[in-house]
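Last lecture ended with a question: if I hand you only a sequence, what can you say about the shape of the protein? Today we answer it with a concrete record. The protein is (Atlantic silverside) hypothetical protein. Below, first the input exactly as provided, then the predicted structure, then a couple of comments.
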Amino acid sequence: MENGETAERDVVNASVASHCLLCVFSGVFVPIVLGSLPPALPWHVSCPMRCVCQIKPWFSPDSVYHEAPTVDCSDLLLTKLPLPIPPNTHTLRLQRNLMSVLDTALLHGLHNLTDLDLSQNRFSSVRTITQSYTLSSLLSLHLEENHLSHLPEASFSSLPALQELFLSHNNIHSIAPGAFGGLDSLLRLHINNNRLNTVDPRWFRSLPRLEVLMLGGNPVESLPERGFVALKSLRSLVLGGMGLRGVAEKALEGLEGLESLSFYDNLLSKVPSQALRRVPGLKFLDLNKNHIKLVDTGDFQNMAHLKELGLNNMEELVSIEKSGLENLPELTKLEITNNPRLSYIHPQAFVQLSRLESLMLNSNSLSTLHQNIMLSLPSLQEVSLHSNPLRCDCLFHWAAKDKSHPYIDKVMGKDVQTARLVRFIQPQATLCSEPPELRARRVREVSTGEMSASCLPSIPVSSLPSYVGVQEGGKLVLHCRALADPQPELYWVTPSGLKLGPSQSQSSKSSSAPALCKNVTTSEASRHTSFSSVHVQHAKNHTSCHSLKNYQLLPEGTLEISKITPRDAGLYTCVAENVLGADTRSVTVGVHSRGKYRKKGVATKQKKFQAIRIDARLELQEVGEHYAILSWQSRHNLPSTRLSWQALYPNTHAPTYTTHILAGTQSFNLTHLQGETFYRVCLHLGISQGAKHINRRSRDSRKPQCISFRTKDDQEFQPTLQLNPQMTSTAVTLLLLALILLLAAQGWDTEPREGEVKHHNTLQYDIKGPQTVIINQKTKINYNNQPNQSEKLVLHQIC
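The predicted structure:
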């Protein structure tokens, strides 16, 4: 059991050291110095039985080197002090024994005793250690991994010269307000990994010289305001593993000299930016292993002395927003690694980081690192991107083998792009995941000619879970992000089919605003990538403003729903769209009633899906010579809707063409049709990929809605097609065959592609502005391929 506790302590200490928590102190460099020092020397004295007496190197808390006469009596199962102890003993090591009482009278005569290690024994009270006799020369006392539970008043008053006190890994649950009275010289206090559930500012009033305070590992959920104000000399504060859910604005007030701060392994859901602004001299900040979802605009702003920042091992981090790190003039190292959902870093996330040299971004879910980021970091020397699903396309041209890494110099008030070399860390493991033809290729071995010149939108799978449960009356936040060139616009479709898009006005400077209850067409929608309020688009859908007041659409595509109700449950779809194409991602939201178990919430989710039936009726709104406007209405968000159509020729089997319909669309303008021709059009209403629990019978019952119609007479060809009433039926047949051959010569290829269903050639479509869809013949629906200009059919989509 003790070995397990020792291993746990070693892991905690190693993690703390690895994050530069104490690197502002010269004590961190002691192992390096010791490596160059001579080994321990024999000390020829009368040594206690079974103990080892040697002259060993030793550093004081203020980093002064000594050759210390050392008596090592560790691991001997001792229950009391061994005798005789040499009178000029400097360091006495008694760890890993069975001692519960210490005869301080025997230590009182050791006038040179400086370092006493009593860790991993059975002491349950500090009075048994510090009673009656004063140890005036003792500088360092180790009491880790004992059975201490309470520190009474003036617990260490007999140790006036003490500079280091180690009390970690005990069972301390209470500390008297004046427990540390008399420790005016104390520099380092370790009380981490105990059972304290609060922090009392009175503890620190007697510690004017304290430089290092380790409080981590205590179950403290919140810090008091001005709790550390008495620690004017504090330079390093470790608050890791405490269960902190938030940090009050004034919690760190008074720590003007603080240089190193750790919030490692807490429950913080956002960066405590207000509290951090109270620590102007901070140099090293550790926020690793928290529940932070976004690094928002201004979270790290104007921290003038920050040198190193850690944002690693966060399960829920999805995005680094615009100006998330801004004006950090001394930042040299930035670590954002091992975040499995981090898929988006805004092109302008890093602003005025003039000295950043090392950028660690490995082991995330990033598909790219935008070129604008490289342009904004003039001092960058190395970047780590391995173990990411990198998409080697137009946004990644800067990383190709035939491209140098640029940055922007400010010369005479102008932006001047200059070439420089940035080193890839582990280039052999920095591989392309997309497109398929470049998969598993090393990024540095791919040329710009092999990468596409433009980028279709792509919403990373990791950005949205398949299911989210929320308590009734609570707040739901859904984050959706996408990068492309041109930059895509993001909008959401609610379970009722409402389309929540960008605001038409950019006049508002607020970060969010309630949904606008207004009927609009797609042509009216403003096409901005950054928007401040919600724009609602719906066709023939009578929804009251009351049902929309709780929706908010934040910049970059975050949807917030406040005071959520069971009516808000269902399927939400995020759509990222630019002129080249679109991508979608859906999430199912379950609303749990108060006081009910989560299991019932899941059942509600299943019920919602089972209620989704074919409730849309396909209708023909208008038909012309070469077009037909079709419409349908649905009470549900069905993101996998498809539309298929086929010309009906006598004695001839024409190909069937198919296109996907973006979520929220309820009207479609089918163009490039043939005049005087019968067509059959079918609407296929699909279900979400997340609704896997729907049974096969329910799936099979989803029959498409179909209609047939005939296009109007083709006036353009009417003079040449006038027939003599005496023309025989054979001549009519020949003429129809000639017309079919003419159409075939114009590019209508009826051969099905290999691997596709017979008589069904699917088409790729890409969004071209608010109303236009580009259809490529003989191409499977795939947003990762660029359309061939010679094969485009133009369709108009009305949302």
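Comments.
1. The radius of gyration is 36 Å.
2. The CA atoms of residues 340 and 493 lie 26 Å apart.
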